[in-house]
Structures are given as C-alpha cells and as structure tokens.
Write a structure and sequence with these properties.
The complex is a heterotrimer of chains A (about 270), B (about 300) and C (about 375).
Chain A (H helix, E strand, L loop, with lengths): L5 H24 L16 H8 L1 H34 L6 H13 L2 H14 L6 H25 L3 H9 L4 H30 L2 H6 L7 H9 L5 H41 L1
Chain B lengths: L1 H28 L2 E2 L6 E2 L7 H10 L4 H8 L1 H34 L5 H13 L2 H12 L4 H9 L12 H26 L3 H8 L4 H12 L1 H16 L3 H7 L6 H10 L4 H33 L1
Antiparallel strand pairs in B: 1-2
Chain C lengths: L15 E12 L2 E12 L3 E5 L6 H9 L6 E6 L2 E2 L10 E4 L11 H11 L4 H14 L15 H13 L5 E5 L7 H18 L2 E6 L2 H7 L2 E6 L2 E6 L1 H6 L4 H6 L4 E10 L2 E5 L7 E4 L9 E6 L5 E3 L8 E12 L3 E7 L5 E7 L14 E6 L5 E3 L2
Parallel strand pairs in C: 3-8, 3-9, 6-7, 7-8
Antiparallel strand pairs in C: 1-2, 1-4, 4-5, 9-10, 11-12, 11-14, 12-13, 14-20, 15-19, 16-17, 16-19, 17-18
Helix pairs in contact in C: 2-3, 2-4, 3-4
Classes of the chains: A mainly alpha (about 270), B mainly alpha (about 300), C alpha+beta (about 375).
C-alpha cells in the first residue's frame, strides 16, 4: 500500500511553497502603491493603469501574439507531418538525418539556434522583422509538436486505419476521416505548446528580431536588466493570470470529459 | 507520391532552417573577423568560379579555435558552465525527488491536482519566473527583509549576483523537468513490491533504498539529463541572477556576438558548446531508447 | 427430402472462391507462410486454427491486402489479388480489437464503408437499418462505441464489415475479447448470420472449440504450414499427425513399432506386455516406428480384465479430474506411460466405483485408436 508519511507531506508542502511563493509575491507586490518595489506602501492598481498606457508594451504584445499565432499554426502542420513520417512512413533514404533534425532542436541551446538562424538570414539577405521571427519560432516549435503528436501516434491503434482502408478509404481519406479526428487532442496540445513557447521566447527572438519588430519578452528583458520594476510586476501578474486560467480550465474540461466517458462505459457494461 | 510530399515538406524545412544555418555557423567559425558587412572574411564568391571556391576554402582556418584556447576566459567559461550545470542538476534532484516521491504516495484523488500544480509553472513565462527571484534575493529584497525582521541576521546577505542565486534560479525553473519523469517512474511502481520487501525483513528505510530508488532509476537519469543539457547553454538565468562574476558560456556567446560583434569567435564558441553537449545528448537518447524497449 | 450435404471440396466441378497457389510470405529472414496451396469455396465457413505465431493472421492479412505474398499468387474468383489495394477489394475484415471508430456513432460506423462507395443517402440508410436489425442493435444506433458493452461492440464490428456485402468476410479472433458464456452464444449467432447472408467467412482463431463449433472446415496450422484441413469431425476422429491429434481435444499417445496383421497393425509398445491392435489402412512397413492416438472417452475403465478385447492394459489410477458431467482418470501403466480414460458421471459421486491407487483395466475396441506415422 502507498502511505502518505509525514515526510511526504512535508516535502510536498515545502516543494509547492518553493514553486509558488515567488509568483505569489510578484502578484501581491504588483498592487503596491510605491515605486520602490520591495517596500509596501498600500494597495493600488496604479501600475496596471501605467502599463495599459504604455504604447511600446502594447505594440510588443500585439507583435508577440501575431508571431505566436502564425508560427504555432505552421509548426502544428509541419510537426504533425513530421510525427507521421517518423512513426508511419517506414524506411526512406535520409531517415536518420530526418529524425535527428526533428529531435535536435529540443536539446539545442537557444543561443546556438538563434545565432545560426541569424547568420542564415544575413547570409541570404533577408531583412529581420516579424517574418524572420516567425520562421525561427516555427522551426524550433515544430519539433515540440512532433514529440507530442508522435507520442500519441505510437499508441494509436493501427487497425483503425486498416479498418478505414478495408472499408474503402484511400490513405488520404483514412487520415482525414479517422486518424486526424482521433489524434486531434494531441494536435491541439501541440499547438498550445508551440504557442506558449513562442510567447515565451527571448533568446531566439533577440537574435532574429530586427528594429521593425520587438516582441514582449525582448521588451521585458530590456526593462528588467536594470532591476525590478512595478510595471513589469503588473504585466507578469496579467500573464500569470491568463496562463493559470487557461491551464486550469483546460484541465477541468479534460477531467470532466474523462469522468463522463468512464461513467458511460460503466453504464454500458451493465446493459 | 503523396508519401514523398509528406516526407519532403518537413524535411526541406528542417534542412533549410536547421541544418544549413548550422553549416553556416561552422563555416563562419573558420573565417576571420573583418571590419565589413558581414563582419567576416572570406565570403564565397561564386562568380569567380572554381578559383573563387578554392580561394574561399584556402582562407578558412582554425584560428578562432586556437584563439579560444589561448584566452582563458573561454575555457574557464566552459568549465564553469559544466560545473554549474552538474551542481545545479544534483540540487534539483535533491529538491525534486522528495516532491515526486510525495506525489506518488499521495491519495489517488489528489494526484491530478498535484500534477497540474507541477505543470502550471512550466506554462508560465520562463523570463517572469526568473525575474520573480530578483525581487526576493536582492539586498533590500523580501528574503533579507524577512531575515532581518526575525533577527537571524543583522546585515543583509548578498545573494543576488552570486552563483548561489544562479543555482536557486536553475533549481526553480527546471524543477518540473526533474519531478515529472521521476514521478512517472514511481507512479508505475507496484505498491506490493514494498510490502514484499518488508515482508522479507526490510525496514521501511532499507526497502526505500533497495526497491524504490533502483526502480525509479530511469526516471532519475531522464530527469537529470533534462535539467543538465539545457542548463549548460543557459543565458537568461546567469544574466539576470548571476551578475558579472558568474561565467557561463551562453552569456559569453551572447556578449561576443552582440557587444563585441565578433561573429567568427561567437560561432567558434557555439561549435565547441555543441561538441560538449553531444556526449550527454547521446547518453540521454540511449537511455530513452532503453526505456522504450523495456516498456515495449 | 434428404438434406444436401455441403461439401464443395469433395466436388471436382466446384469452383473455389479463393485459391492460394504456392504462397510464401517472409518478413526478413523469418518465413511466416511456407509455400501453401489450398482452396476455399463459396459459402464456406473456413477456420484457420493454430497457436500464436503459426502464420494464421498473416494468411488473413494477405487476403485483406495488408500484406503482399513474397512468392506465389492468391486468386479471388479467379482474379489475381496482388495489384489490388485493400480499399479496392471486395473483401472486408472484422478486426480482433474491433477497430470501431471512437469518434463516430454506431450508425456512422456501419455506414462508413457505404459512404465511401458514394451510394445514395436513402440506400445507405436502408442498408444500415438492415444491418442494425440483423445484429439486433437498433436501440444503440446513436451511441458511441464506448457507450455500449463488449458484446454489442463485437456486433457493431460484424455489422460494419458485412454492410458492404463483401464476397468474403475475414474475422480475426472475433470472439477473443468476450467472456466464455457470451462467446458460446455469439458463436451460434455468427453461424446463423453466415447462413442468412450466404457470405464466405474465413475466421482466425486459437480456440479449438470455437473453430470446431462454427466452421465447415478447419485448417490446423503450425509453423507457417497447414498441417490438415478438413471437417471438424474428421479432424477430431482422423487426425493425420500427432500434432493435430494433440492440438484438438485430449489424447493419449502411445509410441511403438507396427507389424501388419489382418485389417490393421499390431503395435508392440512395452516389452513383456501384449501388443495393441488397431485397424488402419495406412501403408506401413514392418517394424516402423508409429504413434497410437487414443481419445480418453473411447477408453473403457473396468475393475476386472475385460473379455475378448485385444486392447487391454492394467494400470493404477494416479489422478482423477472431476469435471461434473465427466471424470478423467489418469492411469499409470507399469512402464510409467500415462493413459487417460474418461467416463460420464451418470451416477452420484458417492457411488463412484474407482478411487486413487485402485488397480484397474483399460480397454478399447480395434477401431477406436488412430495410427499415426508422425
């Protein structure tokens, strides 16, 4: 039997306190009146107001969202194709190189990815801006999508595709009508992951962004290098809130549907 | 035909945007710095035909790599990156294992929530999570305020801009990568194994050493690699928390490129960093392969 | 009116629906199917029976088109199947896992194949309701696969594969996922549906009872080869090898040497004991090593030496397996050989005549045992 000992309980308490305390402090002090971040001077939403009036931040946020949306969408298409090739296409010339390239960006230090892409863009004379950031983000996030989708494809019951072929589907139809609807949750998860990674990325964006486009992380970076600022605290709180609501809502939805499915299965066995 | 399209589209994308850029890095690492745009020579001039190609290859040399060995900044940075990564990985293991173990022993209906709590920070901006420690660790930060208030110290401790802050930052940001694989291994473990061990005369502590730890070994190894590999090339954490006295290679590369504009040396730094990473990456993949085979 | 016996394989004019001609299938170095030639006839219920890894599933997947023979040809109604992809074959398959599409309802699952043919809507609807009726699933049409029970899922899979009215239906361990009781009921249902639709069924199974119950012919496979293909009765009563005798039902094998005598052979098995006798039309040379296969229910067990039986052996009961309706006795001969004998328990247990350690006589008639060369 598994027992939750006092040792387990203590390590869980301290562990989660360690994980969450810094963020909680950040949220609390974002409502601090004082300009001195570490000195409490009363509750205020002043910094949120300042943040919303800061055009530079809003512009950067808009660029970031556009980049994240476009790059994660392309990355999802390419990454799903890549996963399908890895799991299903069998042998072909250059397969080893292909699977190496699919997985390598996961362990590649961001500074190297950023540097190499920048040198490529300069080498072919491509002006740096939103377009180059999108290319860069698509390249590294498609690999994450591939990992997520291929782990679902590996456990996918192949006889479902064979059944579709057996009932008269062409291979394309089998993918569209059977495989895609079933792996859809993994594809969506891959898209969300790619979107978050793109929103979050500082290093690769710093290398590939030009003067015409600045993303939010670059903006945050240049302001926090000088020290803690209350405006950034407010911005962080907003980002944390959005992510938390999103992740918690997603997990409640999946849990509910899993519970419903379980209940239905149990009911079905009784009939 | 369709299969060929399916393979070619992602293949060509990765060739053009992953492999080719890397070859360019390799090439520039063999070039010389120049006051020009782009700031290195030689540049390949195909209009001169075969002679141009020959001249191009003739001008490539290992001078930048030689330079890296002569200036002790670089090898000290490599060494200290590896050292920081090793220590930080062990610290993360020390903090992460008890949490994963506690999660695995928690009642069934708690586990989804605990999992969610571990994953949630992962979705939150990395930059913000590192930033949150700046306010805690600075001289007039929350930690010093708290310690002064309790009377444990009379002078504020200097933590920010020291290696200690870097360790804290790494443990904090990479903790989920350590917890999740260990938890996965522990959760799969059959609970009756511990009962069997106790039945055969183990104390609970020796059962933990002789059964639980060996059975979570693969999770520990996976977790350590997942922390160690990205930590070596880390840039954000040492820049924000480590100050000027922490030397890490990711930071050196960044500065070489953006501040000194020495592209050939920056490229050479990148090539060597990758060579250092190849060994742990291969070991990691072999471990994963073994796990997959054991599962299948 | 005498019932016409369905035995197209004995009719030289009958045209087979499926012909395997020298079919070999290799996966790398491994030979899954070894040069097999045989026919399956229309309206047949043909069972491929064998342990896992014997090649029976490969055989079926070649019929469905998921594998191509390495050598040889497979003909369906006289046409070479090799160039035809699975989605263009008039063959449908019921998968072992059922492979029901989890995102589609029962109705949509059954209609899936019909829609691919681009048939008119009302025709599809009519065909689906016909199939739902045939498999008694009308009430569940709107449910998703996870909302119905295992037995119902099995019927959906059957309905889906029958919906396109294939010339040939392949069933891969169709009842493997059902519990024992449901399996028996479903076996009869399968036979019923096969008869109603007149479709040729090829079933793959490792369950010998299932194969014997449903099939018109059973092909016993071992190591990529069909060892014997015949009606269930002949497979059981006249196995052609020790492998088949042992695989189907319970059997005692006694090894010995044969000597021609009258209509059959005398088999000397243990020195000092009288030779056994079996009627056989096998052509054996004197002194050849043979195996005598005898089914337990054909062995009589008595306290005294039976009169006028040539096959009588004395032994001691070492084990009794009581199964309710029957009991199986394991009797050890002085040589150590175990012979199994079965009796029906027509009397109450308390009045059973034999118990452990009893010395008993075993006997059987001259035609009860089968003489096998290998």
């Amino acid at each position: 039997m598994r027992r939750l000992t006092w040792f387990n309980a203590t390590s869980l308490t301290f562990g989660f306190a360690f994980l969450y305390l810094p963020m909680v402090l950040l949220v609390i002090y974002s409502f601090n009146e004082s300009k001195l971040v570490t000195v409490w001077a009363g509750f205020s939403t002043r910094w949120y107001g300042e943040l919303l009036r800061n055009e530079a931040f809003l512009d950067a946020a808009w660029v970031t969202i556009q980049v994240a949306f476009v790059s994660s969408t392309i990355a999802t298409i390419l990454g799903t194709m890549g996963a399908y090739v890895i799991v299903r296409a069998g042998r072909f010339t250059g397969r080893t190189l292909f699977s190496g390239m699919i997985y390598a960006p996961l362990v590649m230090p961001e500074v190297i990815t950023g540097l190499s892409l920048l040198l490529l863009f300069i080498g072919i004379g491509l002006d740096r801006g939103m377009f180059t950031i999108i290319l860069a983000h698509t390249t590294f996030s498609m690999c994450y999508v591939s990992v997520v989708v291929s782990s679902r494809l590996v456990t996918f019951d192949r006889s479902l595709e064979e059944a579709a072929l057996d009932l008269g589907c062409s291979p394309m139809q089998a993918f569209r009508l059977v495989t895609l609807p079933i792996i859809a949750p993994a594809v969506v998860a891959g898209w969300l992951l790619a979107f978050t990674l793109s929103l979050d990325d500082l290093v690769i964006a710093s290398f590939t962004a030009g003067p015409s486009a600045t993303t939010l992380p670059i903006k945050i970076w240049s302001s926090i290098r000088l020290g803690v600022s209350p405006e950034i605290n407010a911005l962080s709180t907003l980002l944390i809130a959005v992510v938390s609501v999103g992740v918690i809502a997603a997990s409640i939805v999946t849990k509910r549907s899993a519970l419903r499915q379980e209940a239905e299965e149990r009911a079905a066995e009784r009939t | 035909m369709r299969r060929a399209v399916l393979i070619l589209v992602p293949y060509l994308w990765l060739l053009a945007l992953f492999l080719v850029p890397f070859i360019i890095v390799l090439k520039i690492s063999l070039s010389d710095i120049a006051l020009a745009i782009p700031p290195y020579t030689p540049t390949l001039d195909l209009s001169e035909g075969w002679a141009g190609i020959k001249a191009f290859f003739g001008a490539l040399d290992f001078e930048n790599f030689w330079f890296l060995t002569t200036d002790d900044l670089y090898w000290k940075a490599y060494l200290s990156s590896v050292q920081i990564a090793i220590i930080a990985t062990l610290l993360t293991l020390l903090v992460g294992y008890p949490i994963a173990y506690g999660m695995a022993n928690a009642p069934d209906h708690w586990r989804p929530t605990l999992m969610l709590l571990v994953i949630l920070p992962f979705w939150t901006s990395f930059l913000i999570r590192v930033y949150s420690w700046m306010g805690i660790l600075s001289n007039e930060g929350y930690l010093n305020q708290f310690l002064l208030w309790t009377g444990l110290i009379s002078e504020p401790l200097t933590i920010l801009n020291t290696p200690i802050a870097v360790y804290i930052g790494i443990v904090y940001t990479y903790l989920p990568f350590m917890i999740l694989p260990i938890y996965a291994a522990l959760e799969r473990m059959d609970g009756s194994l511990l009962e069997a061990a106790e039945d055969l005369g183990c104390s609970r502590l020796s059962a933990f050493w002789l059964v639980t730890i060996p059975l979570s070994r693969n999770g520990i190894i996976a977790g350590c690699f997942l922390v160690f590999i990205p930590t070596i090339g880390e840039f954000v954490i040492p820049s924000l928390l480590g100050g000027s006295q922490t030397l890490m290679i990711g930071k050196v590369l960044w500065e070489e490129f953006f501040n000194n504009r020495d592209w050939p040396v920056a490229s050479a730094v990148a090539v060597i960093l990758l060579l250092i990473l190849i060994i742990p990456i291969i070991l990691f993949q072999r471990n994963e392969q073994k796990n997959r085979e054991a599962d299948g | 009116m005498p019932e016409k016996i369905f035995e197209p394989w004995n009719d030289p004019d009958a045209k087979p629906l499926i012909q395997f001609k020298g079919v070999t299938k290799r996966f790398g170095d491994f030979t899954a199917i070894d040069n097999q030639t045989f026919d399956i006839y229309e309206r047949e219920f043909f069972a491929l029976l064998g342990p896992s890894g014997c090649g029976k599933t490969t055989m079926m997947r070649m019929l469905a088109g998921f594998e191509k023979p390495t050598e040889g040809t497979i003909l369906l109604a006289g046409q070479d199947m090799a160039p035809i992809p699975p989605n263009k074959r008039a063959v449908n398959m019921m998968f072992q896992s059922y492979a029901l599409f989890p995102h589609l309802s029962v109705w949509e699952n059954i209609a899936f194949g019909l829609k691919r043919d681009g048939r008119p809507k009302d025709e599809i609807a009519a065909r689906v309701s016909e199939m739902l009726k045939l498999t008694r699933l009308e009430k569940f049409a709107k449910r998703k696969p996870h909302q119905i029970s295992g037995g119902q899922r099995q019927r959906v899979a059957l309905a889906r594969s029958l919906a396109k009215a294939p010339k040939l239906l392949l069933l891969d361990e169709p009842l493997g996922a059902l519990d024992a009781k449901l399996r028996q009921a479903t076996q009869f249902e399968l036979m019923d549906i096969q008869e109603k639709t007149g479709t040729t069924f090829v079933i793959v199974t490792h369950d010998q009872e299932e194969a014997m119950t449903v099939a018109s012919r059973v092909a016993v496979m071992d190591d990529g080869k069909i060892v014997q293909a015949d009606t269930p009765a002949r497979i059981y009563e006249s196995p052609n090898s020790v492998y088949v005798a042992d695989f189907i039902g319970d059997v005692t094998i006694i090894e010995g040497t044969a000597r021609r005598s009258g209509d059959g052979y005398e088999i000397s098995h243990t020195e000092g004991l009288p030779a056994l006798y079996a009627v056989s039309d096998a052509q054996l040379s004197d002194g050849q090593r043979v195996f005598l296969a005898i089914r337990p229910e054909k062995v009589e067990i008595t306290a005294d030496k039976p009169e006028n039986k040539r096959n009588a052996l004395r032994g001691k009961i070492i084990d009794i397996a009581y199964l309710g309706n029957i009991s199986t006795y394991h009797v050890a001969l002085p040589s150590g050989q175990i012979v199994k004998a079965q009796t029906a328990n027509t009397r109450r247990l308390s009045r059973r005549s034999f118990t452990w350690e009893d010395e008993v006589w075993l006997s059987w008639t001259d035609t009860a045992a089968v003489l096998l060369e290998h």
